[in-house]
Amino acid sequence: MLFSVFYRKINAELKNWAERPFRKPLVLRGARQVGKTTAVRMFASEFDTFISLNLEQPADLAIFSGNDSLSNVLDAMHFLKGVPLRSQGRTLIFIDEIQKSPQAVAMLRYFHEEAPQLYVIAAGSLLETMLDAHVSFPVGRVEFLLMHPVTFEEFLGALGEKAALSALRMLPAPAYAHDKLTELFHRYMLVGGMPEAVKAYSDAGDLKAVDRIHESLVIAYQEDVEKYGSTQRMVPIIRHIMHSAFSEAAGRIRYEGFGNSNYLARDIKEGFGMLQKAFLFQVVHPVTATSLPLSPDTKKSPRIHALDTGLLVFKTGMRKALFSAADVSAVFSGRIVEHVVGQELYALNSSPLHGLHFWARDKTQSNAEVDYVLPIDSRLIPVEVKSGASGRLRSLHAFMNAASHSTAVRLYGAPYSLESAKTIAGKEFTLLNIPWYQAAMVEEYVELQKAREALPFSPAG
């Protein structure tokens, strides 16, 4: 059975928020078209009363146009929406496109202070780029969640792949499920995680329809350029970045001469900063230490990651090559696989403060780079993305030589295995070989290995 509306993990986090006794109004952040409004409307079924406002609609915007008290604003909401005031039951108020009204943003403070019994969620497109510099969310009176594109787990749910979903959640995934999960993960790379594209594919299994959706999304994001730019001078610069950045995704960049342009490095950096605020790209600077705390070195060349791998595949013209590839890690120099793994790792946390990190040692004749590093249980765990069990792991060995722990991860295209390894310098460590499709379960694997190591006689495997 295929589903036109599918479950998103953010719904569980919305439920947790609603159950907290001292919750604050929630601001749901994320790029355009990742499904924020749909998720809230699904969540609304758990409430007795639901009031939905879209501040792009003049009548809804007018509710906040004056300096009315919260009481008057609530009366106007109930009157306009034809929803009776209730003293019993739970009421959810959803204010969509809140960036259209600084007064509505300011009103969140009074929802928190004067009406804590109400459940209030706000969302909007380009919140950080469109709000005036003098307008900010009330400090200490709101909380935030970041919504990501559809994850692989959610993708399986959307396709109705219940058996595959069950196998995915096992540690390790059963051997009999490996080929099927690998094939589905391959399909996920082609489709990506934009909800409209996932829905179209789950409904019809048509990649051409997915192409049309990706095209419309890319065009819409490009048309938003003037909204991203803080000044008209930045508009052509951001257009250039939008045109060039997908082909650089999952790779390190230099701001100077980016995309074969003559734009100043500081202008390219500023443009990427604006696109990062809109969650269209991440600018990821490397860490150079092998232990916590994470401290990115902003002087070193960063890596960039796009919002969604499906958009990346479409924009780079790699769909045909990826579709027919026997080894998907060979396509685009392995950067598509690395990117989709990063997308899965990024989606592990819904805090807007969370981000991706990689490790780099940039020295003359001794450069080393580990694809990702994850803070797990007070340790910084290195994660390399490879095609198979063979292949050199020199950068991983360099990291492990300097690390105070003995656990490393390789995400690759084969079933799970546990390996005793040794660096060139002679340090022994445990290498967890985890299939790509279980990238989101790295933390569980690492914690399971730690529990194994705590046993007096722990067999390998």
Describe the structure.
The chain is an alpha/beta fold. Among the domains are: 10-146, Rossmann fold (3-Layer(aba) Sandwich), CATH 3.40.50; 152-284 and 307-320, no CATH class. Helix content is 39%, strand content 15%. Strands 2-3-4-1-5 form a five-stranded parallel sheet, sandwiched between helices. The chain has a five-stranded mixed sheet with strand order 10-11-12-14-13, with helices on both faces. A hairpin with a 6-residue loop joins strand 8 (359-361) and strand 9. Helix 1 packs across helix 2 (36-43), helix 9 crosses helix 15 (309-316) and helix 11 packs across helix 15. The longest helix has 17 residues, at 207-223. It is globular. The relative contact order is 0.10.
Assign a percent range to the helix content: 25-40%
Q: In this structure, how is the largest beta sheet organized?
A: 5 strands, parallel
Find the count of extended strands (DSSP E, 2+ residues): 14
What structural class should be given to the helix and strand makeup?
alpha/beta
**SS strand fraction:** 15-25%
Give the termini distance in whole angstroms.
Answer: 36 Å
**Weakly predicted, low-confidence segments:** none
Q: Radius of gyration, rounded?
A: 23 Å
Spatially, the strands of the biggest sheet line up as: 2-3-4-1-5
Mean pLDDT: 92
Q: Provide a count of the helices.
A: 19
Form type: globular
